[in-house]
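Q&A log
Question type: sequence-to-structure
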Amino acid sequence: MKVAKRITLGYLIPLLLPAILLAVQVFGSRRQQEASQRISGDNLKIALTVVDLVRDRDAVDESSRRFFAQGDAASREEMKESLQSFESALREIRGYRGSDRPQAEIGRLDQFWREFSEALMAREQALQRKPTTGGFPSDLADQMDRLRAQSITVYQAILQDIKKQAADARKSSERTEMVAWWIGGATLVFGTLALILIIRSISLPLRNLSEGTRAIAEGKAFYRLDTSRDDELSQIAKDFNVLADRIREKPGVEQRGEGRQL
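Response status: OK
Response body:
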C-alpha cells in the first residue's frame, strides 16, 4: 500500500469511527421506534375493540331479552343491530396477531358466538311462527353468560399479551443499545489497532532510514535497508542501498564493521 494511502486511512479511520457508531445508533433507534409505534397503535386499537366487544355483548343480551319479551319489529331491529355490532368487533379481533393463548381464546369465543347466533336465529324463527310470552329461553341465557365470561377472558388474555409485547419491546431496545455499545467498542479497538499499524508501517522505515543516513555519515558504508516493501519508502531504501554501494566502492573509503541490513 502506498504511503499516501496509509496517511489517508490514518485520517479517515478517526472520522469513520464516530460515523459508524452514529449510523448503528440511528438505525437501531429508528427500527425500535417504528416497531414500538406499530405495536402501540395496533394494540391500542385492539384493546379498544375488545372493550367495545364486551359492551356489545351486554347490548346483545339486553336487546335479545327485550325482543323475546315484546316480540315487536322495533325490538327485533334493535337486536339485529346489536348482533351486527358484536360481529363487527369480533371480526376485527380475529385479525389480532399475538401469542398462542389470545389466539386460542379468540377462537373459542368465535365458536361460542356461532353457537349462540344459530340458536338465537332458530328461536327467533320459531317465535315468528308461534308467538309466545315465555320470556328469554334458559338455554340462550346460559350461552349468553358463557359469551360474557369468554369475552372477559379474551379481554384479559389480550391485555396480558400487550403487556408482554411491551416488555419484549423494552428488552429489544436494551439489546439494541447493548449491541451498539459492543459495536462502538469493537470499532474503537479495531480503529486504534489500525492506526497503530499504519503509524508503525510509516515510522519504522523512516527510523531505519534515519539510522542508515547517520551510519553513512559516520563512514559505515556497509549499512543496508530493507527493500521488501512495496511502497515509496521501499524505493527510497533501494536508492539508499545503491548510494551506499557507490560510496563503499570509492577508493580510500574506510570500511568499519560488517554488513548490516535494517
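Response note: Residues 78 and 127 are 16 Å apart (CA to CA).
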